[in-house]
């Protein structure tokens, strides 16, 4: 007989496979035989999860929300700022719901026991929002409001999202709706700085600088002595900076910079080797860096990156989540995993083929070929190449130009392009129509000329 540990491990593996399947396709149309065929397992394996299909569904839905809640709370705990904690919580909810298809949410709403699990989590979320609002009000960083009312209002919107009412009215999927809910709540609660005052300073330490001015959130890696390599504190600070930008309704563009000679040389291998538990340190470093990548990829505003010197490993990944990448003439781009005896991380294995194609992605990751700035531009990694001495100013001008552009149209354009591969053409057309209507309602310049002048095109100065 298999040991209890092996049985539990097999059950958890099956739960994970079922979660992935249900999130992508829903569960109402499957019977036990269908599930066994899709997972290539026996019915006995499925019944080890629960004794019936209905109970299996409840177990899977419950495990999804339990795991999501744990990850959300971990992100909240990583932030010490009461104002940012509320933002992080709502943004994390949006990120966790990103994989949930419309079919999954519809099936949850239609199946009573699964819907009750959802409602339990909604009630908990409302209580959590209330407690975070009370904490922020007590700290003086949120406006003095009636916290129970905010919690109840958020719960009603959550229920409308789950029922599909928000999507019917706006075209937003659940994750997008939660991001807009976060914008709405925070815009009404955060105490504004004095007129014209920029919010500047470090996020969690001296290794990352974060500031907002003129609608541009600048995130600058500040470890020039080690080529801005990411150790654990820096990765955590980078994630917090990205989440702060996501939570700020005044941000219209994010600018990524690296101080000193290099943009970012990847993970700090010396710090990894110096850790008592190398595997544990590497795992936590990857999680923190991945949190930053997810926050940047999920932004509702465009991202500009300015790359000087080396962009390797995690540094390469940061350029891949940017929308406009400006490179200095001496910049180089390197995957860096093969020579270090490591595998790609920070989403490189997913992002790189999308940007340069599979063959070129394999060439970069398997051979650690180093691309010059000109080659990177030819491959599509870089938007434009600038003289090294002009790079930073060119990037700031590009970010300022985007921040001064039509909002929210530019951000919606970013999301349409980033999210398109996960949708069918029909669904994408629906999203385009919804975004177009939103832009028109927000005051689109319908009388603007189609052909802009040179200052409107590209990033060239």
Compact overview of the structure:
The protein is of the alpha/beta class and 461 residues long. Helix content is 59%, strand content 8%. Helix 11 links the parallel strand 2 and strand 3 (253-258).
Oligomer category: single chain
CATH-assigned fold name of the largest domain:
2-enoyl-CoA Hydratase, Chain A, domain 1
Helix and strand content put the structural class at alpha/beta
- In CATH terms, what is the architecture of the largest domain? Alpha-Beta Complex
Description:
This protein has helices at 4-25, 32-39, 43-47, 53-77, 82-97, 102-110, 112-139, 147-163, 165-170, 174-189, 232-247, 269-274, 278-297, 314-320, 337-340, 348-356, 358-367, 373-379, 391-403, 409-419, 425-441; strands at 208-213, 216-221, 253-258, 303-307, 310-312, 324-328, 332-334, 371-372, 384-386. The radius of gyration is 23 Å and the shape is globular. The chain folds into 3 domains: 4-189, Orthogonal Bundle (Tetracycline Repressor, domain 2), CATH 1.10.357.10; 208-402, 2-enoyl-CoA Hydratase, Chain A, domain 1; 407-444. A 6-stranded mixed beta sheet has the order 1-2-3-4-6-9, sandwiched between helices. It has a 3-stranded mixed beta sheet with strand order 5-7-8. α1 crosses α4, α1 (4-25) packs across α6 (102-110) and α11 (232-247) packs parallel to α13. It has 21 helices and 9 strands. Helices cover 59% and strands 8% of the residues.
